[in-house]
Amino acid sequence: MKEMKSRRNLIQVTLGLASICAMGQGVLPAHAQTWPTKPVRVIVPAPAGSSLDVIVRAMSDALRTRWGQPLVIENKPGAGGTIGMDAVAKSAADGYTLGIGFNGPIAFGPFMFKKMPYDPFKDLLPVILTTSQPNVLAIPANHPATNLKEFVTWAKTQGDKVSYASVGQGSSSHLSMELLKAAAGFEATHVPFNGSPPAALSVSQNETTALLTVEPALLSLVQGGRLKLLATTSLQRLAARPDLPTVAEAGYPGFEALAWNGFFAAAGTPTETVNRINADVNATMADPAFRQNMLKQGLIIGGGSAAYFKSFIDGEARKWGVIIDKVGIKID
Q1: Backbone dihedral region of 79: left (phi > 0), alpha (psi from -120 to 50 degrees) or beta?
Q2: Tens digit of each residue's pLDDT (9 = 90 or more) over 226-267
Q3: Cα 96 from Cα 54, distance rounded (Å)
Q4: Distance between CA 129 and CA 262 in Å, rounded?
Q5: Structure confidence by residue, pLDDT tens digits, 11-44
Q6: Residue 34 is inside which H or E element, if any?
Q7: Which of 201, 189, 170, 175 is nearest to 50 (CA)?
Q8: Sorting pLDDT into bands at 50, 70 and 90, what band is 215?
């Protein structure tokens, strides 16, 4: 009898140790292990070829392998990214619809739009910060200005004839240029586009005069001699472009405007599923080939927990809310 009891205790201890080891090795709860059992839809609130699209497609093969399910990437541009993120917010809270959100429809929108179709702080669940990067100022290659100071001087002589493109109403592209206008004291008419490819094309064709946006979507036009870059909105120069001055050092101390993006799910998505997605995206972004790919495009890899991403967004909202009110940007 004592022998049977000893064996039973040994089995219980062994099972207990196995359970602890499994948790230590990151084995996920049963719910997360059963996800996904069908294709995962990823909504990109920007056109194909945009920086957001490039990021998602760069990690799609690795995530497909990890999840054993295809990723269905769906581009839903328009309305400063709110059309795509609204679709995420109104999707089933099961982790099968994700969206790659960015500054505009998440941290800026509540302070600029008179009415949004969703509440980004209540209807969306931050999953993981993917990348961040500064914007760069692009102008037509044949423009007479060779640096930011010359461009500002030129713009001030043009009155209301200057126009600038952006990747959409309420985007980092839009807001960053409004901040630059206010800091430098020149006027320019805003011409929004649905994403960076058409916005960049408009500048290269001299239909608009300037564009502040992230670098990836500009690379082919810069390399093709159709656009030139004047400055970056980071406080330090880009490692990949050490010859490109910052707006701050060009005469506007303290000027900084970073674009960022990350994955979101509908509010109410199970924590286990969110943690599974977070872990797999973190692992994908840790791959040297992926990191090198992003580095070449001037992107800074994000990562971290879902809680960190939420805290980061809260800080961005506080920072930009004050600036938006001060500049007075309001969108119907």
Answers
A1: left
A2: 999 999 999 888 878 899 999 999 999 999 898 899 999 999
A3: 20
A4: 4
A5: 343 334 334 334 334 444 444 568 999 999 999 9
A6: helix 30-34
A7: 201
A8: confident
Alpha helices, H only, 68-129: 82-89, 103, 109-112
SS (HEC) of 257-308: CEEEEEEEEECCCCHHHHHHHHHHHHHHHCCHHHHHHHHHCCCEECCCCHHH
Q: Using an 8 Å Cβ cutoff, are 26 and 279 in contact?
A: yes
Rounded average pLDDT over 180-209: 95
Amino acid identity, residue 105?
A: P
Contact 211, 166 (CB under 8 A): yes
For residue 319, what are the CA distances in angstroms to 235, 285, 296, 309, 327?
A: 16, 27, 29, 15, 13
pLDDT band at 3; cut points 50, 70, 90: very low
Q: Could you tell me where the beta strands, DSSP code E, fall in 91-144?
A: 97-102, 124-134, 136-140
Per the CB < 8 A criterion, the answer to whether 296 and 215 are in contact is no
Tokens of 313: 């967004």
Strand order in the sheet with 163-166: 189-192, 163-166, 210-213, 136-140, 227-232
Q: What is the pLDDT of residues 102-147, one digit of tens each?
A: 998 999 999 998 899 999 999 999 999 999 989 999 999 999 999 9
**Amino acid letter at 285?**
M
Closest CA to 84 of 118, 130, 135, 34: 118
H/E stretch holding 211: strand 210-213
Which domains are assigned to the chain?
39-132+259-327 (3.40.190.150), 136-232 (3.40.190.10)
